[in-house]
Every structure is written in C-alpha cells, then in structure tokens.
Write the structure tokens for this entry.
Amino acid sequence: MTAEQLFVAYRTIIIKEITRFMRIWSQTILPAAISMALYFVIFGNLIGPRIGVMGGFSYMEFIAPGIIMMSIINNAYSNVSSSFFGARFQHHVEEMLIAPIPNWLILTGYVSGGVIRGLLVGFIVTAVALFFTGLPQLHSPLIVLAIVILTSVLFSLGGFLNGMFARNFDDISIIPTFVLTPLIYLGGVFYSIDLLPQLWQSVSLANPILYMVNAFRYGILGVSDISIHSAFFIILLFIALLSSLCLYLLHRGAGIKT
C-alpha cells in the first residue's frame, strides 16, 4: 500500500473509533466526570482536612494527579477492549484482516482511539479537579504530556489484548474489576508509599501503575516516590512487550480465525 492509502485506512479507523464513543458520550465520557467528582468530594473535601498535608501539599492537591491518571487508565483500556471485541462479535474485523492493511496499522488505529478517549476524559477530569482545588503551575508540562500519552498507549494495548481473548461481554469487565482496580488503588493514587512499612514499600514497587501515577504527580506537583527515569523505563518496556505480543497474536489471528 502507498503512504496515502495507509493514511486513509488509519484515518478511517480513527474516525470510526471517535464516532463510536462520542455517539454514546453519556456512557463513555459523562460517567468518568461524575465518578471523579465524587472522589474529590469524599476523599478531598470530607476526608482530606482530617489527613492534612501530604508530600508538602494539601491532600486534595496530592490526590488530584492520581485521580486524573486513574480516569485516563480506565477509559483508554475500556475503549479498546470493548471496541475490538465488538468488531469480533459483529464479524467486521475480518474485513480489515482480508484487506491489504498491515496488522501494525490496525493496532495503531485502535490504540489511537483509546489514546484520544483517554486524553479527552483526562482533560474533563482535570477541569473537574480545578473546580475543587487550585492546582499549582505545572512543574513539568512535557513530563505531564509524555506520561499521559504513554500511559494511554500502554493501557490501550492492554485493552486490545482483552478484546482479543474475550469470549463474551462479561469477559470485558473481568480484567478491570479484578486486576486494574486493585492495582490502581494500591498504586499510590490516594497515598504516598513513604507511609508504608519498608516491606510493603518494596512490594508496591512491583506495581507498574505506581510508576505512572508518581511520574504524572511529579509532572504536576514536582514530588514523587520513585525515580522519574525508572518510571519512563518501566512504561516504555511494557509498551514494547505488549505491542510485540499484540502484533504476534494479530498475525496468528488469535481469537479471530478458527
């Protein structure tokens, strides 16, 4: 395929993905804003004053980056997992596979859709956060942007794998419920791991979401429990592993070809 044909194919997948989640915005966009507002009300306004200062900031300011990152992770993941499973369920993914479209372009198109939804929801949740607390001037805008995009890419790839292996719509919710949610809550969203005993600090370092949350918090507030270089290394490593696995399984037709 020529470069122009590749661009047309990529643009078509992107338009389809954006149209899909914007058509049902009341189910894909609005719930995130409402849920995150509740987090700010309960944890920030009600519990925060009793906790006081954490990491040199008010508790509301400290948890805001983690809550924003939580919404980005959940939406990037769920967008791709539900979209690709829907394509399998409705049997129109076969049309892309038999078309002269390379597998990497199919994967890139779906991942880009997840990234766009993650960025959109992240922007909305940030606006909600600013309503409850005045975040300071960004410590490092480039780190914030890089972490948001890389994290969206990573969890979009994870959602692609989920959508590839899911046998029914119930399987789409298994990973977010039993894997993502525990990892997010234990990933330093609502606390600093410096508060944990040394043993549990070491255990927490095995949680990849900890690195994303802290890197994002560093970009906004300038504080982090872990090394920023380690965070980028972990995220890029997982992106390389998951993208290679997705391309390999897509080439084999796992979950698609019989």
Notes: Residues 13 and 45 are 42 Å apart (CA to CA). Strands lie at 53-54, 57-58. DSSP finds twelve helices and two strands in the chain. Residues 59-89 form the longest helix (31 residues).
